[in-house]
Amino acid sequence: MCPCDTVRLMNGPGGAISLHDVRVARGAAGIVLRGLDRNQTILEGDFRRDNGVKVVEADGVAIENLTARDYTGNGFFWTGVNGYRGSFLTAYRNGDYGIYAFNSVNGQFDHSYASGSPDSGFYIGQCRP
Fold it and tell me: Given Cys at both, which of 33, 45, 77, 86 links 70, Cβ 3.0 to 4.6 Å?
């Protein structure tokens, strides 16, 4: 993948896409992961998978127009990144957090909704400034 590439996820049968945890790592810095429509492009964890999307040390990754539900960990998770964005995301019934940034800087969440997680819907932890 090259920086600024866009990965488009289409709707699955009945809307849900049953995927194993999606992991975006260092080599994919600067990409955009985009669903067709957050109300119809749904990452389904089936209460068996850890994270809907986990971005690890991949700077500048944006996630857009997706729903993540029923994960044991988090719906959308960025860790150790410089520059991140989550736009038009929905996360519900996840095990820890819905939309989560940890130890990351220069990020933004906008037009997003999260509920039903036992800890919190949105969590921004150890992100300085």
Answer: 45
Residue 122: its pLDDT value, please?
Answer: 96
Nearest-angstrom CA–CA distance, 121 and 47: 17
27: three-class secondary structure by DSSP: helix
Rounded CA-CA distance 123/55 in Å is 15
Cite the DSSP H helix spans in the chain. none
Q: Do strands 105-110 and 74-79 pair parallel, antiparallel, or not at all (unpaired)?
A: unpaired
In the structure encoding, which two tokens stand for residue 107, read together? Answer: 């990020």
Exposed, middle or buried: residue 89 (CB in 10 Å: 0-12, 13-18, 19+)? Answer: buried
Strand 82-92 to 16-17 pairing: unpaired
